Amino acid sequence: VPMVAPGNVQVHVINSTLAKVHWDPVPLKTVRGHLQGYKVYYWKVQNLSRRSRRHVEKKILTFRGNKTFGMLPGLEPYSSYKLNVRVVNGKGEGPASPDKVFKTPEGVPSSPSFLKITNPTLDSLTLEWGSPTHPNGVLTSYILKFQPINNTHELGPLVEIRIPANESSLILKNLNYSTRYKFYFNAQTSVGSGSQITEEAVTIMDE
Length: 207
Hints:
It is built from no helices and 14 strands. With 207 residues, it is an all-beta fold. It folds into two domains: 98 residues, Sandwich (Immunoglobulin-like), CATH 2.60.40.10; 91 residues, Sandwich (Immunoglobulin-like). A hairpin with a 6-residue loop joins strand 8 and strand 9. The protein starts with 6 loop residues before the first strand and ends in a 5-residue tail after the last strand. The model has no long low-confidence stretch (mean pLDDT 95).
């Protein structure tokens, strides 16, 4: 098997899901056989928005021939990763380079996990929601937009409310009685807004 590990491994993080890794080629005489390529082993060490440590699954990408760089796609935003590089000949893999740590930046969150509308009165509705399953960063706020729908299904003026990220419910007051409302709800990180969840609800006609 090859004798030495690739040197000078460098990681360039391109965005929240993609990184490029570079390495110096090993001297050909240390390959001790036919150079088939290089293997990059990489794994997620930690999700920076959730401190839980799950089973670590190592991923392997093979770059054929004498390439000295490769792309790592499909990374998770706002996470800490480790990687190392090994050279491969027809017999197997050489030793691993020292582990290199890199972090992906924040991304936009997934949609809130649910939006529930309860307690209709003449002029109010209560909203409850769950935080996104994949925050992909630090949540900065939630954005709620809503508008009335009249009997001919025309949409009325849109109202927008920014809600602090640590809230999980809200009572909307001063609504019109016996009116259907359409709600659009999403979470935000400093990078931008995630995908929205929609819901409809009706205030009651009379007490």
